[in-house]
Fold:
Amino acid sequence: MLRIRPECLACSLSSAIRAIKHATEDPEVQRIAAKKVAEEFGKVTWNETPLDLSYIIQRVVVEITGVKDPYLEAKKLGNQAALSRYQEAKKLVMESDDPLRAAIKFSIAGNLIDYGPYSKVDLEAPFQSISHNLAIDDYDVFRRRVMNSDNLLYFVDNSGEIVFDKLLIDVMNEVKGKTFSKVSLVVKESPLINDATMDDVREVRLLDLPNVDIKLVGDGKGSAPSFKSGEVRAWPRDYDLTIMKGQGNFETFEDLEDVFFLLVAKCPMVSSILGVKERDFILKYSGG
Structure:
């Protein structure tokens, strides 16, 4: 589990200001909320993860503005834009030389639909980026595991992006020649930036995939277990194949063995740890 560094505060403060502006156009409320976030960041112990900072931002935004989901409209836009092109994406994937590899690239490219580090999100990015090479490419072991796995644990990340996760799961079933007997999707219990919640899962019809169930995760202040809890960290032990999508899941679970991380490296800290450049595509097996 990666701990925050000083530069994480600056990055997260920028993310906070964007969230505040999505929540309210009132300059005075914006100032109050930004000040409150800065005050809360001043209390960090340096044992926090980057995701802890996101939860701090979310709590402050709700408390000061009363808006529970600042990115609600942006999330809907991302979901619908990606969903409207699902069949186009699947056709491109299935007509490629290696449909599974192509689906992986679409899924990773979908990770660019992220309002955390980016002020603007290009919803065309997944289609424009699938030709990228993988800077870390553990595809061979991934394919073997897919072919020999009966069940799947899948930690999703952002709205919009989850449409391309749906595509990857769909293609894995087709490549295997049979469906997973169980697919557990790990979804945020409540809104957090543009992370996928149950509303997003329903909107893009992820539950239409065969044998899907949902596991909710949060910050431990609701009914779902904390993303840092031993309970959540133990979930992969019950599955043949575990996929962790996005940089946030890598930062949180990078020390777990026998999981696959699919992400775009979006910050200097993660890029340095992985030995890649920012915006590189990653398919990394943690070993074990």
Observations:
- DSSP finds 13 helices and seven strands in the chain.
- The mean pLDDT is 94.
